[in-house]
Specification:
Helix content: 25-40%
CATH topology of the largest domain: Dihydrodipicolinate Reductase, domain 2
Low-confidence stretches: none
Shape: globular
CATH superfamily of the largest domain: Dihydrodipicolinate Reductase, domain 2
Strand order of the largest sheet: 14-13-12-11-7-10-9-8-15
Strand content: 15-25%
Distance between the termini: 62 Å
Number of domains: 2
Structural class: alpha/beta
Radius of gyration: 21 Å
CATH architecture of the largest domain: 2-Layer Sandwich
CATH class of the largest domain: Alpha Beta
């Protein structure tokens, strides 16, 4: 077992700093290199990582340092390039931000490339480490909800930011069963030009092999979570069973109703609390192949495939079977299908974010 695993982190923005600082704080890791194309951001980060080599070229830096862990937190259009750099560097594990990719064509190629390399990979769905997320999972596993028949997730932010999170935790709460088919609708083209290109609103159904039904909504038409003030964290994920329900609010704790009564508790999304165990699980997996990381690539890919199938259904109509048999460019499909279409937001806050005005709010009384 290595004393310290050497880490290179590419992308020193908000999420890159979260990763780099969490690696540095763990005694099993040493950040030996940091990289960003922005020299000002790179220089601002450097004092926190004394001794680390700075670089603006990820390939050159990683090739020279040969890290055990190659971590990148870059824009989603760079996934394939960064995966290739990580493999070329000889890293034993690649850690990167969600989404897995922007299209199934790219995602399938990344999966094939990683499998051929034999390198471990994890995708940062780190919210699951929150105490409130774990409390809901604990209630589900205790049997207090009876037979689980439905899992659900909603978020007001757009697809490429939040949908993979929702699906990942829904899968977790459903027992990580395989999905058999999905069906979905999408509306609004405003965020298709975003750096995380997405329909303004996408909603759909997921049929799991365990006969559990998933219901998901993401974007402008998603319902409000009035218990949460911060717009970006208006997320709700939960499970319903024959004897009750339990759900987590990303920034609002947890609550449950079972045969024994109603219960609730605290908890809020916190990088300071969620990142350390996520990082420790990377060390544990590197130490022992049997200790597979909960955010391992194959699990993330299963959720990604569901997301891409939802996109295809929104464009083509009807049910889409899983696993996906052929690759496609879902973003271009959505771009063509949604061109010129405006979304009908569900709340004034959503209207302001997606349309730039507090108008045309459907289903809300003034």
């Amino acid at each position: 077992m290595n004393d310290k695993y050497r880490v290179v982190v590419v992308g020193m923005g908000k999420r890159g700093m979260h990763h780099a600082l969490a690696f540095q704080a763990n005694r099993r890791f040493e950040v030996v290199g940091i990289c960003d194309i922005n020299p000002f951001r790179l220089d601002a980060a450097a004092p926190g990582f004394l001794g680390a080599v700075k670089g603006r070229n990820a390939l050159q830096l990683a090739s020279a340092l040969k890290p055990d862990v190659f971590c990148f937190c870059t824009l989603p259009n760079l996934r394939s390039e960064m995966i290739r750099i990580g493999i070329h560097s000889g890293a034993r594990l690649i850690a990167f931000e969600k989404p897995v990719a922007l299209t199934s064509r790219e995602g399938m190629e990344i999966r094939k490339t990683l499998a051929a390399s034999g390198i471990k990979a994890v995708v940062s769905h780190q919210h699951r480490y929150g105490e409130h997320y774990h409390k809901v999972k604990e209630i589900i596993d205790s049997g207090a909800l009876g037979r689980i028949h439905t899992v659900y997730g909603t978020a007001t932010a757009w697809m490429m930011h939040n949908l993979s999170h929702l699906i990942d935790y829904m899968r977790w709460y459903s027992g990580n069963g395989e999905a058999r088919w999905v069906m979905a609708q999408a509306a609004g083209d405003g965020k298709m030009s975003d750096l995380h290109p997405s329909p303004d609103y996408i909603a759909g159904f997921i049929q799991f092999a365990t006969n559990i039904r998933g219901i998901v909504e993401c974007g402008a038409g998603a319902p409000d979570v009035p218990e949460v003030d911060y717009w970006w964290r208006k997320c709700r994920i939960g499970a319903q069973g024959t004897d009750g329900f339990a759900e987590v609010l990303t920034a609002g704790g947890w609550r449950a109703v079972t045969k024994t009564g109603a219960k609730s508790g605290g908890g809020c999304m916190s990088y300071d609390l969620d990142m350390p165990p996520y990082i420790q699980d990377i060390a544990d997996w590197l130490d022992d192949d049997r200790k597979v990381h909960p955010c391992n690539f194959e699990s993330a890919y299963a959720g990604f495939e569901i997301m891409m199938a939802l996109c295809r259904s929104a464009v083509d109509g009807g049910q889409v079977a899983l696993p996906l048999a052929e690759a496609a460019d879902e973003i271009e499909m959505l771009r063509a299908y949604l061109a010129g279409r405006k979304v009908l937001p569900s709340t004034p806050a959503n209207a302001k974010e997606y349309l730039g005005a507090e108008a045309n709010v459907v289903g809300v009384s003034s």
